[in-house]
Specification:
elongated; Arc Repressor Mutant, subunit A; alpha+beta; Jelly Rolls; five-stranded mixed sheet; 2 domains; eight-stranded antiparallel sheet; 26% strand
Length: 318
């Protein structure tokens, strides 16, 4: 059929990107590498971006197809993959018990691919955009994910699920992350952990990481409810009934922030809100977020936002 493009990914000589299938841009940072590939025009207008670290990789496909597209593929390696389809639709003919799978917009899945081959069909009537996340065995072990539970050949037909709104927001945070190299990597790792935990908990699945996420979320809520206090990690750990060192480790791994930094961010955000929406004097706002000394609060605010509290209030007051 002349209105369909065919690509055989099992043929290494197939050219589907410009620049002889080499990336058009490569950005190397200390802890990650980002490569961008441009699709050949006969396929469509768009690109493929790959972000790689030692713990995970993220692939983002964004293209408006020139014609309907059919892709033949066969995996030569085993991998655990989370996928979210932002727009478009895939019809996937697989060598699994599922046969043909229909994968639609705002759906996601987590699956372990082993001895997998498939033919993917795409319609050109809508822009196609997909995010794929693959994690290392080490990260898999930390999250407590047993790969055999997600083997693509054995999982139930319900493994494709409607993506939660919270997960969609986390995915946006993940791909729009503009932090420095080290903090970016830690942040992304934390966001991926939250994304996977949201997927795993959507059917009340139990993994050790779901319990970890409950502890972290409980800690965050405890901090937000006690901004008028100067909480320590020891106090929070006692409230969560967990070892302090373990809490500090799982909090930073999951959120990308230390407890201290998260607490400060919440305090400063509340201070901005009070400065904007109330006429409270500076000393009272300081007390509301746990500062007994207004000068200490003013210095912390200026360090965080590069302006004094009164300057911020003036800038937002009409």
């Amino acid at each position: 059929m002349k209105d369909v493009n065919y690509i055989d990914f099992t043929d290494n000589n197939t050219a589907y990107f410009t620049n002889n299938n080499e990336p058009t841009t490569v950005k190397k940072e200390q802890y990650l590498r980002t490569s961008t590939y441009e699709f050949k025009k006969f396929i469509g207008d768009g690109n493929f971006k790959k972000i790689e670290t030692k713990d995970f990789s993220i692939e983002i496909i964004d293209i408006k197809l020139a014609k309907n597209l059919q892709i033949k593929t066969k995996s030569n390696t085993d991998f655990l993959e989370f996928s979210h389809l932002l727009s478009g639709e895939q019809k996937i003919q697989t060598n699994t018990k599922h046969g043909t799978i229909i994968y639609r917009e705002n759906q996601s899945f987590l699956a372990y691919f082993k001895d997998f081959s498939a033919t993917y069909q795409f319609d050109n009537n809508k822009r196609f955009k997909e995010i794929r996340i693959r994690i290392s065995p080490k990260m898999r072990d930390f999250l407590g994910i047993e790969i055999n539970d997600y083997n693509i050949h054995d999982v139930e037909d319900t493994f494709i699920k409607k993506t939660k709104e919270q997960t969609q927001r986390l995915l946006i945070d993940l791909i729009e992350n503009n932090r420095g190299s080290l903090s970016k990597t830690i942040f992304m790792k934390g966001r991926i952990a939250e994304i996977l935990a949201n997927y795993l908990s959507s059917d009340n699945s139990k993994t050790p990481f779901c319990e970890i996420l409950n502890t972290v979320n409980g800690s965050k809520e405890f901090i937000r409810n006690n901004l008028h206090k100067q909480l320590t990690s020891k106090t929070i750990a006692k409230e969560m009934r967990i070892n302090e060192s373990e809490l500090k480790h799982i909090f930073k791994t999951t959120t990308g922030f230390s407890i201290q930094k998260y607490s400060l961010q919440q305090k400063m955000d509340k201070a901005k809100q009070l400065l904007k929406l109330t006429e409270y004097p500076i000393y009272l706002i300081a007390e509301e977020i746990g500062y007994k000394n207004a000068t200490h609060f003013t210095n912390a605010f200026k360090k965080h936002f590069k302006m004094l509290p009164k300057e911020y209030r003036s800038s937002v007051t009409v």
